[in-house]
Structures
1.
Amino acid sequence: MIIIWDFNGTLLDDMQVCINCMNIMLKERELPVLDLERYREIFTFPVRDYYLSLGFDFQKEPFEIPAHQFIDLYRDALHEAPLQPEAIQILEHFKNLGVKQIILSAMEKDFLEETLEFKGILGYFDRVAGITNHLGDGKLDLAKELVSSLGNHGGKICMVGDTVHDYEVATGSGIPCILVAQGHQSYKRLSNLDCLILKDLNDLKNVIPSFP
């Protein structure tokens, strides 16, 4: 069995950090600030679309300027973001079962590895797959390469994430998906997708390794 984990929102509880960082940027541009409920209803990939929904005007400034500003703010505040309460317990559970665990994230790879090490969970993963920039374009191409490189896995593979994008990445890579609705998007937004939706990471114990 192989689990491909998303990181942000799924294992890392960084929603409030993301909101705080974005609100600094919104206030600078005299745009309406975010709360958690609104954030979970509008956050999306590619993040360029999310920025547009917040009122950013890329005629006034190129997308790369706020995108890199956000990453700078996020790096400085990352220590404030805890792991999800069940994260280490669930990673340890699947490690003890002999399940191969991989991280696939839209974070830049070096930053991702640095963050996993800082949070004390890097050692749980057989592989770490991150993108090559900080622009949040998504991870479908990376996922396809990853799944192809895994070779014959006997169908026992799934992705665990917290967003519509994770579902799109999984289906686009030909693997099943499980979403946990305690991250960056609400249960309401996820509930119409054709995949298993859980409300808590601990619920995975009752699903894997028998899934799919």
2.
Amino acid sequence: MQLNIRDAAKLLHVSEKKIYEWIRERKLPANQVSGRTWFNRAELLEWATSQGVNISEEIIETTDASSISGVGSGSGSALSFSGALERGGIFYNVEGDDKPSVLKSVLDLMPLPKDADRKSLLRVLLAREELSSTGIGKGIAIPHSRNPIVFHVSQPVISLCFLIKEIDFCAIDGEPVHTLFTIVTPNARVHLQLLSRLAFALHNPSFNKVIKQKLPKEEILKMAHRIDSNIKSPDSTG
């Protein structure tokens, strides 16, 4: 989804003047077409997360769970951050000496369908890294495609991997990466929603603390559930 200057200002809780300032000074990713400025929603989320800029809950709520095809309906748990993380799994001591070997290890661990072409998926992730790093700073990277990774999965997954060895990801802050969140979804709209929820979680000091300390799975999932409880559901009238 393309966003204009007004949309970006609203979602990042700043003035339109500040958006123009960030384009000039902080390299906010913007595209110019026929004299008009617009943003890619996924790129805006990546930038806000890497820069420590708070995002509006509205950027999460704009994707209505009831309108997304290919994902189970009902409680909406299929679209929750904690649900996707629980399905994707939390893995410790993941091996790898460089970016390609680490990403291969991650894909080997992810609970993908038996007929999944993991080699092709690895090529997609590496091609994305060649365009620009998914290392958002503070030792965290979010490997995914610039065009969302859409796979034949019934529900979206986020796999959290803690690496044995810190890896150079050419992150925005120059720091090596020790933690990866990898997203695979059934469609592009779900991908954007989960990326939004992950960005929201990474702005939460308590969530960052449990990640930094590499606490047990149960503690991380408990915090992820708390994050979900702080995000209004699409059906919320409050």
3.
Amino acid sequence: MVWNERLFYELVASMATGRRWLDLGCGRGARGSELQGVRRKVREALYVGVEPDWDSLLDNPQPNRVCSIGDSLPFRDGAFDLLTSDMVFEHLENPAGVLAECYRVLNNEGVLVVHTASSLHYILMAGRVLSKLVPRRTYRRMVARFTGREERDIFPTRYRANTARKFAQEARKAGFEGGFVTYLDTPLSTGTRAEQLLVGLLPRPFRGTLLAVYFKRQWRPDPLGVSA
């Protein structure tokens, strides 16, 4: 697991204790040893995983799994305290609709934490060009070989809200009052010295992934010390 993904899960683990947690795009679940270690730290009040791909959901060992798309979640308003999504938003056809649903199902103190690919990352841009030049099956095979992922877990990407500016715009439109988006580097384990130098020279939007943390209601200090 590269450090930016571990940072995401450590952040989630620090926020999930005692919360009702909705995991958007839970896939096949947490199987890596490092991720399982992080997951064991969590003492959430409730965990629910949402995944639109039925085959992936059947292979997920976590309890409380729901097959659903993100822009039509089958939950009541304000049902959750924490909503997370890891490497899902790059695949969404309608990220604005998904963010609106995230806002709806979070309660007033709810927090949204999203980790997703930057559409300007130089390797991803090269991959998008390549995907238009070779057959889909060939492209999936090449991506699987390069990343070590299984072909069945390589889904189409759309990058509709995958710059910091675009994601922030869509989050504000959905109603989120406070938060931030930042870029994280994604160092490759096979990266050469030349590549490391290149990454160091690139503007931040061209490097790695996005980490977004948004609050449904902006925090305001209470001068009387009494919670709202």
4.
Amino acid sequence: MDHTATVRPLAVLVFVALAAALPAGAATFDPKALVVGRADVPAGFRLDPDETGLRTNELEAREHPETRPLFRRLGRVTGYQARYENAADASIEARVDLFRNANGAHGLHGWVVREMARSGIKGVVSKRLRLGSEGRMYSSKLFVILYWRSDRAWSALAGFGVGESKTLAAARAQQRRIAAALRS
């Protein structure tokens, strides 16, 4: 069964929400280093280079014009996303968005939670996610989507056909990367 046709519209909604001048300290780490790496995902997954890369504000505005005012208001600086897939049509999609301060990341988190509630997608269970400063988990038979904030970084990680435990393990690895970078 090709689950991507079923959940791709949801993924677009999810990652539209995700995606200025750099504040002091923003240049001290590369946003690529904040998302899960090859060693953080299950064996057999490979990086999809066409769906991986830097997500500048300009790129986000070009692909999703509705994000321009939101990102400007929230003080988004930049972001990065990575997509891993395997031969069984499973995938892990990860994203980190950096903001000038924690209020921006908190604002995006609240906006995404509201959008998910308004989406009306049937069969999705929502619950609190204990990761970072605040988080949410949305799950169904086909996917697990995690959103969380840690200081001025906002993250999303989605597992399609991967299962909850492997999706959570990848998210915890991503959070460790974020926490280490923000400490330095």
